[in-house]
Amino acid sequence: MRTLFLGGSLGGYLRGMLAMRCFAVVCGLGGLFQVLDLLESSTDILSRGQGMLGIAYYSLLRTPSVLLQAFPLAALLGAIFSFSTLSRQNEICAMRAAGLPFRRVLLALLPVVVGIVLLHGLLAEAIVPKTQNALTAWWASLPPSPDKDPDDELLWLRTNGAVVGLEQVMPDGKRLDGVRIYRRDEAGSLLSRTVATRAQYEDRRWTLIDAVTTDLRAGKSEAVQPRLDWETPLKPADLMRLSAAEPYVSGGLASAVLAGTQSGTKTESFYRTRLARSWTDPLAALVMMLLATPVAIALTRGGAGGVQVLGALACGLVFLLVNGLMAALGEAGTLSPLLAAWLSPASFVLLGLLLVFRLDRR
Q1: Which site among 82, 89, 273, 342 is 20 to 30 Å from 184 CA-CA?
Q2: What is the pLDDT of residues 272-290, one digit of tens each?
């Protein structure tokens, strides 16, 4: 097993090279993405009176999300830089002359790729959800920006077999204004509508204030009820998350929404696709490393290194494009969630393996 994974100085040298380059690229891309994000949001932060400390706090909470976005490209560029260095220094030639097939080099790099996959999963499922929730709570606690008009569009969500519309969610998530609750049967037909001036969360339960319930089948409305209990699994933290501009949906959250223990604003196909993709998204690092393999022999085959580098970059970008397209189709219900999650990674892994074996036969 030690020979298989190139243990010793050679394996350590290869793994160190890939790890350092991936780390450098992810820091560079993360910094670039962070700057672009701040260009859009810093004015809003300053208009709310938060100053430079507010910008620094926002950047701190946004860093895990930004790094998560940078991981796939960082894996691709890190692999390209590593293979290009090995090729320029004729180290690939030396290893192949010694009878070492290139697939053994890839096996030596596999522990680094596994580490990137695990770190990607940790960020996506543990760190980013917590920082996103903290950012949402902090943002909701800030005074409104004087430069923006209040948003009067309803927030729609599904919970406990009902569709709920909300005019406004207070920053702490414990008060809801302009509540509309539509209940449906199993066939999707409307049964009743409840309209309330507001909903208040007290003693771990919701109470509707000045609620009117209409039986849509009979066409009758009940008298106004000053206080009406509302049975729902919604919690204030759920409302704070759902009222965010772009709430992050992890695999754990998608699973909880599908199980009925959490509420969501999207369709069932969206959450099933997100759950399936929580297993496949971290595999992007493996796909990117395989797609970068032609660069390893670029300079040993007539010096046409630029063509292979551009080809590897193009393949990586096509993978990201196709992967995103499959996700959109799955979330819209056009493709099955499993097909939307696995088709693109599996296809490009197969393409990468074909490239590796083709290189070894040269």
Answers
A1: 273
A2: 999 999 999 999 999 999 9
